[in-house]
Amino acid sequence: MQNADIAATFERLANLLELKGELSFKTQAYRKAARVIKQLPADIEQLAHERKLKDIPGVGEAIANKITRLVTTGKMDLYERVRAEFPQGTIDLMDVPGIGPKLAALLYNELHITNVDELKHAIGDGRVASLPRVGTKMVQSILRSIENNR
């Protein structure tokens, strides 16, 4: 696995934990690990094989173990467990630029939106704009992101 792949997994894990309502220090630890890994000039797999992961700033024992497992098996148990708690579509919503964990949770909890097509329909009929803290500019930005990603 490449550094960017591992960083993306940690970022998705942080988003899912935030969506789940976990404590912010956990999500921040995974976000920090994602940032550091993404910017790391060294190959993360090599560091894992050399058992030097804890030399990376922001990587302690628990995160080092998760990286090692990800490098050796291609999976991270915590990520798989948390991901299984949400419909795949909800996870896909967070891939749309402008939709973070909080907005994805709001869309899911209030409007029961579980995929991009449902989101586009809810934007069209005005339901998304009626949500608290969601204005016209945000809705237009999300719609542009959806169109650009298609």
Fold topology:
Blueprint: H1 3-20, H2 24-39, H3 44-49, H4 61-73, H5 77-83, H6 88-93, H7 101-111, H8 116-124, H9 136-149
Helix pairs in contact: 1-2, 1-5, 1-7
What this model shows, in words?
By secondary structure, this protein is mainly α. It has two domains: 3-83, DNA polymerase beta, N-terminal domain-like (DNA polymerase, domain 1), CATH 1.10.150; 88-149, 5' to 3' exonuclease, C-terminal subdomain (DNA polymerase, domain 1). It has nine helices and no strands. The chain has helices at residues 3-20, 24-39, 44-49, 61-73, 77-83, 88-93, 101-111, 116-124, 136-149. Helix 1 (3-20) runs antiparallel to helix 2 (24-39). 25% of the residues are buried.
Can you tag this structure with a few keywords?
2 domains; 150 residues; single chain; DNA polymerase, domain 1; 67% helix; mainly alpha
Q: Within the CATH hierarchy, at the fold level, what is the topology of the largest domain?
A: DNA polymerase, domain 1
Q: From the 3D coordinates, which CATH architecture of the largest domain would you assign?
A: Orthogonal Bundle
- The helix/strand series, from N terminus to C terminus, equals HHHHHHHHH
- How many alpha or pi helices? 9
Please indicate the count of domains: 2
> How would you name the CATH homologous superfamily of the largest domain?
DNA polymerase beta, N-terminal domain-like
Helix content: 55-70%
Sheet having the most strands: none
Report the count of strand segments. 0
Coarse morphology: elongated
List unreliable stretches of 5+ residues: none
